[in-house]
Amino acid sequence: MRFAVAMIIVGLLAWAAPAAADEVILHYGDNPPTEYGNPGEYAFWIDYTTPDEWIDTVCSEVRFFARGYGDNSKTLGSLVLYGPAEDETTLFETEEGRHQILTRKVFDLKDVPADGGWMTIGFDPVKLPAEFAVVIYSYSTEDRGIEIGLTEPNTDAKGKSGYFYIEKVRNVEARETTTGDRALFFDNDHHWMIQAVTANTLPPVEAISVADISGAGYVYYDDGEADGFITSQRHGPMVKFDAGGTRTVDRVYVYGQLDGAWFQTEKLATAYLLDEDYRIISREVLRYDRFVNEPCWGAIDYKDVRVTGEYYVLIEPLAKLDVELMLGFDSSGENIGSLWGTAGAIGSWDTTAPEELTNWMIRVHYK
Ligand SMILES: [Ca+2]
Prior knowledge:
The chain is mainly β. The protein has one helix at residues 172-177; strands at 8-9, 13-14, 22-27, 35-37, 43-49, 58-69, 76-84, 92-94, 97-108, 117-127, 131-137, 145-150, 194-199, 218-219, 228-230, 236-260, 268-274, 280-287, 296-316, 323-330, 338-342, 345-346, 359-360, 362-366.
């Protein structure tokens, strides 16, 4: 694979979500096309590199500017994102390297407008390697198919491996038996108008702001702003609450983020409600994938658990070697009810947060 070094970055947009994500649309020019290209049975191929400043890059949308011709009513196209392959997963090999499929999405060619326009294809988020290719298979013939717009000559990209290629392979079987049968990239410096919409994180499963969980029915001691994060392989932060009389807990909120192999992790933490003697009233799973690689609030649903008088919420993050759930703490005040322990017992303060000042960012909602 030949890799584009220069990218034109048009979008640097902050999402209005608790986890502020940056978004970058990768492309080589987005002016209306003055010409179109049609590789016929070959595919539209374009290479990108992910933004340097990001640790992780995810993608869930590709756009391309195209026009259809002929009768496409019975034809599906497919979008494939390729990345560099490990040996055992190699799909095909070209002079530029080995390739494997990162994701694949089928679309209706008939949706491509005859007079030209942007097509948007969304798909389940994929985590991108530093270098990847976006490829569109249209299976076009003389009678029907699509053409994709070409950028104006882009001298910035020329000489920096920003050329596009086309690949003479039409399906997995062909790819497995076709090696080195690459076609070619243009001998000018045009590029396909194929864009990859990338971001440095995913939006949280549920966008929860501090304001959402600060009103009537919520109890908490933190100020809503994290001053640090901790994790633990065993035991964890506890907060002592007083229900007054008897109340019903239906949700607990925890502020956190994931470090390490966070993307699509299936790891689990545990969240307890304990009575005044630290005995378990209720135990629920806290899914790591309620969180992302940026801080956000994650929720734990309880099945209407009755609590009376003093009780405790305990989160055991169960940090793993490859991925850790980091829990936020507020240390700009005075410790009101924050402790460290496990089910059955309060332990010594075995964590780096300052004991006198820390309030764990754990909030309870009463039904
Ligand atoms: Ca604070």
